[in-house]
Design a protein that fits this description.
Radius of gyration: 17 Å
Number of strands: 20
Strand content: 25-35%
Number of helices: 2
CATH architecture: 3 Solenoid
Number of domains: 1
Distance between the termini: 38 Å
């Protein structure tokens, strides 16, 4: 087995590649995220939204942002009017995430735009996520970079989403299984 290569992770590419802001801004955001966005004791959705906007997030009017939410880079987050972001949602957005208006992202869902899954050298690969107007991504879904959820589509709980979910579709499974779309 010694002839099978192992990647020296101390030399892996990708460290800080998605950091498109100065280090001090990244660290300041980390403190503000902890105090005002992720903090379960901070109950004000409007304060959460104001802090995200101060760091460059584009968030429309009437958006509800519940506690325990995480946002990797707020300047890469775009949310339309009247959308609801559930408790514990994690935007791991090393690339841009575009959420339309009147969208629901339910509790404990993770949207991640970065991956190493197709590269043996551990290089960071990023692709944006698009969620169209009126879509509902229910609880504990996992949405991968490059996904596009169509207008008024509903993604069932515990669904892994990659590719395209058609408009007005009810998609996914009743268990946590992989669902791939054309």
């Amino acid at each position: 087995m010694s002839d099978i290569p192992v990647i020296d992770l101390s030399r892996a590419p990708g460290e800080r590649l998605a950091w498109d802001r100065p280090t001090w801004i990244i660290y300041l955001w980390a403190v503000c995220e902890l105090l005002f966005v992720t903090n379960p004791w901070q109950i004000s959705s409007s304060l959460r939204v104001r802090v995200l906007r101060a760091f460059g997030a584009e968030i429309g009017p009437g958006v509800v942002f519940r506690p325990r939410t995480r946002v990797k880079f707020p300047w890469k987050l775009h949310i339309g009017a009247r959308s609801w972001i559930g408790e514990g949602v994690w935007f791991h957005n090393q690339d841009h995430i575009y959420i339309g208006h009147d969208v629901v992202i339910s509790q404990e869902t993770m949207l991640t735009t970065g991956s190493h899954s197709h590269r043996r050298d551990m290089a960071l690969l990023t692709r944006p996520i698009h969620v169209d107007d009126g879509a509902w991504i229910t609880s504990r879904c996992f949405v991968l970079g490059g996904a596009h959820v169509g207008r008024s589509a509903l993604v069932r709980p515990l669904t892994r989403v990659e590719g395209t979910v058609p408009a007005n579709a009810v998609w996914g499974s009743s268990g946590f299984e992989h669902v791939r779309f054309a």
